[in-house]
Amino acid sequence: MTEREKTTLKRIRTGSFERRLSLTRTGLLAGTRYMAQSASSLLLPRARRAEHRRAALGAQARYLVEELGKLKGSVVKIGQMMALYGEHFLPDEVTVALHSLEDRTVALEWPVIRRVLERELGRQRLPELDIDPVPIGAASLGQVHLARRLADDRALCLKVQYPGVADSIDADIDAVVQMLEIARMIAPTEEFRSWLEEVREMLHREVDYTLEAAKTQLFHERLRRDPRFVVPEVVPEYSTAHVLATSFEQGYAVTSADAEALPLARRNALGRAFLELFLREIFEWKELQTDPNFGNYRVRPAATARGRDRLVLLDFGAVQQYPDSFLDPLKQMIRGAYHGDIEEVRQGALALKFIRAEFPAHVQQSFAEVCAGVIEPLVCRPGNVPAAALNAEGQYRWRDSDLPSRIASRAAKAAFSTYFRVPPREFVFLNRKLIGVYTFIAVLGAEFNGADILEKYL
C-alpha cells in the first residue's frame, strides 16, 4: 500500500443500516467487556476497585473510539463534538479517548471529489477552473481544494462536502448515542437530550453550505472596512448546496514559527483584535462563530513596515445565534464581574439557571465569585491578579497566567459537584468559544489588559 493510499479513501460508508449495525455491535461488545472487567474488580481489595474500573472504562472507551474512527464521515464529527462539548455528560475516560478522533481526517480520492464537482457545477462550468487534485485541508465532513479561475487567474478555495454525509447525520447521531448507552457510557438524562439536540442542529448547520455562504458573506461585509481582519469573499457562481467557493486568503498558522517571531507589540495588537471580535459578536451581532479550532484562523503579517498585521477568519459553518433571553443575563454577569458586584453576577447566574434559588447562600456566593474570576484578564485591577500573571508594566501575561487551574481549584474547594446543574445548552458552546479565545491569545504570547476593550461594550 502506498503512502497516498494510506491517506485517502475511495468512499465513506453512509448507509444507515450498515453503520447502525456496526455501532450496535461495537456497543454490545464494549458493554460486555466492561461489565466483565467490572465484575472481576470485586475480587480486588476495596482500595484498588475504583482504579481498576477506571482503567477498564478507559480501555473500552478507546475500543469504541477506534471503531468510530473506521466509519469516518459525520460519525467522526459527532465524536469530535462530544469530545469538545461533552464534559458535562460523559466520563473523563470517554472524552479523553474521543479527543483522538481529532486526527482522523482522511481525505477522499480525487476521482470521487471530481464526480461531486461535476454533479454540482456541471460539465460546462467545471472546465473554467484549474483545480489541484491534492487537498489543502481535510475534515470529517468535507475537504478543501485550491483552484485557479482560468479567465482571470484568481485563486479560489473550493470546500467540497463528502457525498451522503448530510443525509446520514440524524441516523449517525442516534446510532452513536445508542452505542454509548449499550456500552453503559452515558445516562440519557433530560439535560443530555437537550444538549444532543443542540449538537444535531449545529451539525445540520455545518453541512448547509448555502447557509454558510450567507454567513461568510455577512461577516465579510461586517468586517471589510476593519483593517485588522480578512474574511474570504464568497464566489457564488461556483457555490452550491454541497460546494462552497471563496477567495483564497493567505496567512500563517497561529501556532507557526512565523507568527511566534512577530514582535510582542504586533502580537499584542492581534490578540486585542481577536478579543474585541469576540465581544462584538456577543454585544453587537448576537451570534458567534463557535468552533474554536485553530485551523479556522490565520495570521497575515504586514507586507510593509507601515502596514498592519491582519487576522484571516475562515469557516463560518458553526455560527450560532443567541436570543436576548440568554444574552441579557450573560451581559449582567459580565457587567457585575467587571464592577466587582458579586450580587449582580449571582442574579445573572440565577436567571440563566446556572444555579437555583434553593441552593445554600454560600454556594450561590461561591459560584458567583468563581464566575467573576473568569474575566480576570478583562478587569486586571491591582490586588485582584497574582503578581506572576503580570509583567513589569502591569500588563496581563496571557500565556503565563495559571487562571484555568486557579478557577478549577476554587470550584473544587466550593464542592459545586454536590449542587451542580448542567448549564443551558447555549452556554456549553459559548464556554468553549471563550476558552478558545483565551487560548488563542495565550498561544500568541500576548501581554495586555483587556479592560479598555470590554469597557466599550458595557
Shape: globular
Per DSSP, the total helix count is 17
The N- and C-terminal alpha carbons lie at a distance of: 60 Å
The count of DSSP E runs of length 2 or more, i.e. the number of strands, is 13
- Cα radius of gyration in angstroms: 24 Å
Strand-and-helix sequence, N→C? HEHHHHEHEEEEHHHEEEHHEEEEHHHHHH
Strand content: 5-15%
> Into how many domains do the coordinates divide?
2
Largest sheet: 5 strands, antiparallel
Notes on the protein architecture:
- With 458 residues, this protein is α+β, with helices and mostly antiparallel strands.
- Helices cover 52% and strands 10% of the residues.
- It has 17 helices and 13 strands.
- It has helices spanning 3-6, 16-40, 46-71, 73-85, 92-98, 110-121, 165-182, 190-206, 209-223, 257-260, 264-285, 324-339, 342-351, 361-373, 403-413, 425-444, 451-455; strands spanning 8-9, 107-108, 129-131, 137-138, 142-149, 154-161, 229-230, 243-247, 252-253, 287-289, 297-300, 310-313, 319-321.
- Strands 3, 4, 5, 6 and 8 form a five-stranded antiparallel sheet that branches.
- Strand 5 (142-149) and strand 6 (154-161) form a beta hairpin.
- Helix 3 runs parallel beside helix 5 (92-98) and helix 12 (324-339) packs across helix 14.
- Mean pLDDT is 82; it is low at 1-6, 14-19 and 30-44.
Task: Briefly say what this structure is.
With 458 residues, the chain is an alpha+beta fold. Helices cover 52% and strands 10% of the residues.
Keywords:
alpha+beta; single chain; 458 residues; four-stranded mixed β-sheet; disordered N terminus; 52% helix; 17 helices; globular; five-stranded antiparallel β-sheet
